[in-house]
């Protein structure tokens, strides 16, 4: 399957505020291990980002909607500038000294090439870049209409088979040291993995 419409959208402050309100009652205690996963399979999901030193550097929250999933990320300690951010196959961020390789590759059940600007289609894992300010803080919301955390009544028709993130080995959100150019294979030149948020059952 090749996706030719741009259905990953960057949301503004209003969407961020709404998502924060929805997730505000949850306390994240996973410390990037994906255990425990906060929320239940019918609700919202959140966990911590950890850096390569094993310390908690932020949070990630996801809300399943009828047309996809809304992702909210809030991190600190990044270098100033743009950073690639992708969905990875395994909910494991335990190998901090190895650069989070345990999180596996990109979620790409369709076998597409990488990159939102790629004329041959893009992976379900691909997201817009994340910007960190001079203080190293990065906060953003993204909507991806090709994935959901859990199945819903309309999920199969909306996102297709293989796009449910919460499989037996979970999934992760990974932030890279450099921007993703959305064209170069296999990861848009985004470089090393510098932060990881693991989700698991």
From TrEMBL:
Keywords assigned: Signal
GO BP annotations listed: superoxide metabolic process
Domain Superoxide dismutase copper/zinc binding: 58-198
CDD domains in the cross-refs: Cu-Zn_Superoxide_Dismutase
InterPro entries: SOD-like_Cu/Zn_dom_sf, SOD_Cu/Zn_/chaperone, SOD_Cu/Zn_BS, SOD_Cu_Zn_dom
Signal sequence segment: 1-21
Gene3D superfamilies registered for this protein in UniProt: Superoxide dismutase, copper/zinc binding domain
GO MF assignments: copper ion binding
SUPFAM superfamilies in alphabetical order: Cu,Zn superoxide dismutase-like
UniProt record similarity statement: Belongs to the Cu-Zn superoxide dismutase family.
Name of the protein this chain belongs to: Superoxide dismutase copper/zinc binding domain-containing protein
Species whose genome carries this gene: Aquisalinus flavus
């Amino acid at each position: 399957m090749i996706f030719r419409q741009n259905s990953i959208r960057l949301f503004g402050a209003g969407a961020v505020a709404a998502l924060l309100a929805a997730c505000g009652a949850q306390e994240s205690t996973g410390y990037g291990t994906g255990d425990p996963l906060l929320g239940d399979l019918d609700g919202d999901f959140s966990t911590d980002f950890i850096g390569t030193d094993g310390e908690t550097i932020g949070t990630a929250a996801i809300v399943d909607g009828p047309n996809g999933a809304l992702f909210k990320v809030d991190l600190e300690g990044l270098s100033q500038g743009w950073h690639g951010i992708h969905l990875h196959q395994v909910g494991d961020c335990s190998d901090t000294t190895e650069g989070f390789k345990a999180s596996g590759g990109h979620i790409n059940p369709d076998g597409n090439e990488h990159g939102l600007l790629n004329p041959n289609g893009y992976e379900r894992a691909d997201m817009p870049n994340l910007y960190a300010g001079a203080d190293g803080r990065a906060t953003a919301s993204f909507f991806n209409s090709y994935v959901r955390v859990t199945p819903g009544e309309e999920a199969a028709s909306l996102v297709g088979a293989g796009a449910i993130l919460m499989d037996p080995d979970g999934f992760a959100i990974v932030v890279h040291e450099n921007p993703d150019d959305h064209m170069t294979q296999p990861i848009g030149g985004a470089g090393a993995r510098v932060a990881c948020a693991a989700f698991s059952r």
